[in-house]
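Two quick folds needed for the group meeting slides. Do the first one here.
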Amino acid sequence: LTLRDALALALERSPELGAFSQEVRAAEGAVLQAGVLPNPVLELSGDNLRNARKAEAGDRTTTLQIGQLIELGGKRAARIRLAESGRDLASWDYEAKRLEILSAVAQRFVDVLVGQSREALAGESVALAAQVADAVGKRVQAGKVSPVEETKARLALASAEIELEQAKRELAGARKALGALWGEANPHFGKAAGDLGQLAALPGYEALAERMRSNPELARWASEISRRQAGVDAERAKAIPDVTVSAGVTRFSQFDDRAYMVGISIPIPIFDRNRGGILEANRRLDKASDERRAVEARLGVELAQSYQRLAAVGAEIQTLRTTLLPGAQSAYGAATKGYQLGKFGFLDVLDAQRSLFQTRSQHLRALADYQRGV
């Protein structure tokens, strides 16, 4: 399984990403509904119906009337703009979630690579510990060293085997965590294909800071501000009363005649001019600008911290590769050879072996931190 394969699987099958995709579709429905005109109202009324059996037919009147609400002040247009900005926000949230999922896939893929490398490293540690234990056993049989040293060597071997089993369990957990991102509880891929030692070059900080402006978490605030401005327009439109126009016909049974009517009704904005709603919408608009600046500052701090941390890890890897790893390997080789020749004690071999394992583990951890940081 390559990283590209894992990313494709997550984009195609991620349940979490699918939920955000449905939200975008739901927002499209909201835009569609926002443009719909109010339904007309049909009213049928009659009078003198309670005593219909006793009353003469000529005493009854029946009225059929239809009314239509006419929205004024640009309410429908403001409602559409509000829904469209909500749809844009849902699209930005989808993009942010998509990047979050891709980042999670990349980091968990690194975890699998680290698990595979740790398992291989633990296997090498077991092999080296076994070689040392065999060498000590031969020297014990030859009567050159105490059997206590063989016991210590076997204990070191057992400890290495325990670390190997732990590495296998951690690898299994990392595989399941990766597969869970595309809804696969028991991953079917065999092995993650990748090279932890292949380090991507660290780009310049200014270039990254410029690219940060296109981050969906920051770019969404342009749509958020547009949405809140549309909310202000919608509240202002509510202050303008709507008009209801009606027309109908009344039938008089007594005269077998009809009368036609037209009417218009409009609320008188004396008490409620929606001043509170307009004030609230304006304050929320101001709040959006402050929130955008806060997000931009937070992202800038996160970028700076991540950049410095990654640069530090890169320097650590360079030191490990050029100095510590070769030194630990050389010390272990010299200690092993010297022990076989009787020049060094067994504690020197164990110390050199422990130092080599720790340095290799430190190198692996630094590689993992660098790849996750990228």
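Then this one, please, same format:
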Amino acid sequence: MTNKATQAKSTGTSSIKTYREAINEALFQEMRRDPTVIVMGEEVSGGAGTDGSDDAYGGVFGVTKGLMPEFGRGRVIDTPISESAIIGAAAGAALTGLRPVAELMFFDFIGVCFDQIFNQAAKFRYMFGGKARTPLVIRATVGAGWRAGAQHSNMLHPVVTHIAGLKVIMPSNAYDAKGLMIAAIRDDDPVIFLEHKILYDTKCLVPDDPYTIPFGEAAFTREGTDVTIVAISAMVHRANAVADKLAKEGISCDVIDPRTVSPLDVESIIESVQITGRLVIVDEANERCSLAADISSIIAEKAFHHLRAPILKVTAPHTPVPFSPVLEDLYIPTPERIEKAVRDVLEA
């Protein structure tokens, strides 16, 4: 089996960085490299009109902290609290030669600006005969576990994965976050870049120099021959923990992190299933029309004869995200549920 995980070819230094710091560094490096890169969103610089710091926030999660003092308010633009205005302005700016990175804060707010995304930005290239470029990156947070309630905690990546003309990126670690963010900014098509809230303080070794990771190349975070586990975003860490636990019993798992869900590295998933004959998919989205359902369909269609057990999905239930901490913890796919699914396909 070929491990397609792309590693940065850097001759420089590396250091431990958080997921948040890695994205921040990517923004700094691309804004220094290319003067057409701008950042816009609610409180991405902060402090305007106050007696305090002129760089008070850096967004609600601090990802854009420090950008405004270096690049100024002409390139780090605080916007009104209007998602339609943010994405509409960013899409227009992309058509005129800029490379905007627009922050939606919470991806749950996509409903307010959905027309600007799916009916405008995603279709510009096609509607104008391939002559229009739309180098737009839309950053947004996703996922439960942050005690933010039903309107701030959804995993809505299946919604945008469905839309032709968009690229959808979901890094699970700081290394991938930096390389994929730089690739997204340099891309000439609209890119949805989804950051799971609970990953912001996770750390790993990240090169200090700029580097890119190609879209559509999955990473094998664990390698094995008994069961294939495909996990999305923050669920990769839970899948890895389960794989490490089961390895002590002699059960070896292939854990695949797609990294980008559109384009999706179908080839790597099929290649793994051809070896293991068993597939478990872990997706924090609601089960109906989820990425787990999509991958299940692809494997059933293209690799059915390799399966030795039914495909199992570990997803959130088909309900809104609960606010109760106890219920929220049960709502998110747990390591126990992932482990049970692996054992079930082994026993099938």
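Slide caption for protein two: The chain has twelve helices and 14 strands.
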